Recover the amino acids of this structure.
């Protein structure tokens, strides 16, 4: 029984990795849409707002921010902080446009999935 539970947990973790990728990208853009931020702070905000259900590793955020910068979705500048310099990220006009489109799609998509999961038991095959 324990072996089966371990196998199921491994499968669940693989699935979670797949759907987390897009969700994390959307959440990072959402944070930046509220104002400039730096990588560690973005992780903290996501964790706090989701009651620690979604914990984004810093090693995930910085490569993502780098891709966003390459794609023209964010701009950066350096700011002096208590612990030295930190890179601040600001969303661009293009980033805002993409965020609003992705947000709209996510709201519709997640509502459709939730509706599906609620209604599937009632569906007549």
């Amino acid at each position: 029984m324990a072996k089966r539970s371990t196998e199921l947990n491994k499968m669940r973790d693989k699935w979670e990795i797949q759907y987390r990728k897009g969700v994390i990208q959307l959440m990072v853009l959402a944070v930046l849409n509220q104002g400039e931020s730096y990588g560690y702070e973005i992780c903290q905000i996501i964790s706090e707002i989701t009651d620690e259900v979604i914990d984004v590793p810093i090693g995930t955020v910085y490569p993502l921010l780098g891709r966003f910068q390459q794609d023209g979705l964010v701009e950066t500048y350096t700011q002096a902080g208590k612990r030295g310099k930190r890179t601040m990220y600001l969303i661009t006009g293009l980033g805002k446009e993409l965020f609003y489109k992705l947000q709209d799609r996510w709201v519709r998509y997640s509502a459709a999935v939730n509706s599906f999961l609620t209604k599937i038991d009632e569906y007549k095959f």
